[in-house]
């Protein structure tokens, strides 16, 4: 776990003062709201060379980041009266980026589970998908399956360090393929027959299939799908729930109506570029 010299010094001088809280209060006084995400998890977020009405410049010639998470982050930044800054951070680097103060919040399609809640504080969910599905090759035997247990003996793959990898073991006798870091890598594995199916939530699956007509979505009959939380929440610095920044972000999120959230996801699914 990374700690800044400022925080270490503060801990030595004032043992009763929480470094996480002081960092959050400092962040609340900045003119920017800095958000971390992969920029590679469409329709929640993706990287593109093309500027749009909703995209944010990543700087340093990296192009832009766009998607549902960007739309939500922009609304929150506007409500806070701050300029939105987006940093592209690998999935495994998001929590360390919060801990070091590099970013103020994770808005990256992240589900609040027990393990993550040991190191992050989460807002209420900002999106809940229709559930977890499988992506398979179109025309394959797997396309006609209706239960996750029908995938027993099949090669199933998910994204590394996510619920979408963990749940694969709910399938008895499954061939749990070594996870990949990003969904584009998962798609390549499926298309090259290194896997028979990819786990995904519905919006992500819809975006992938729209860009890859050789793939199809498998939905499961009631009671025959995965037992998994498909909500996503904003992750913020641990022990910051009582800070001004956390409360302000939660308040701003609460003001975004369900209709507006649904509208943003529809737009994101429709505009995610091919290949994402």
Short overview:
The protein contains 10 helices and 14 strands. With 276 residues, it is α/β, with parallel strands linked by helices.
How would you sum up this structure, described in words?
With 276 residues, the protein is of the alpha/beta class. The protein contains ten helices and 14 strands. α3 packs across α9. The longest helix is centred in the last third of the chain and has 14 residues.
Please identify the structural class as seen in this structure: alpha/beta
> Helix count?
10
Q: Helix share of residues?
A: 25-40%
Major sheet description: 5 strands, mixed
Q: Kindly, what is the distance between the CA atoms of the first and last residues, rounded to a whole number of angstroms? A: 32 Å
Residue fraction in strands: 15-25%
On the 0 to 100 scale, the average pLDDT is 89
**SSE order, one letter for each helix or strand:** HHEEEEEHEHEHEEEHEHEHEEHH
Number of strands: 14
Radius of gyration: 20 Å
Dominant shape: globular
Widest sheet: strand ordering = 6-1-7-14-8
**Poorly predicted regions:** 1-22
Layout of strands and helices, then pairs:
Layout: H1 5-13, H2 19-28, E1 32-37, E2 40-41, E3 45-48, E4 56-57, E5 64-66, H3 68-80, E6 83-88, H4 94-100, E7 105-110, H5 114-117, E8 120-128, E9 132-137, E10 155-157, H6 163-166, E11 175-176, H7 183-191, E12 197-201, H8 202-211, E13 215-218, E14 231-237, H9 244-254, H10 258-271
Parallel strand pairs: 1-6, 1-7, 10-11, 10-12
Antiparallel strand pairs: 2-3, 3-5, 4-5, 7-14, 8-14, 9-12, 9-13
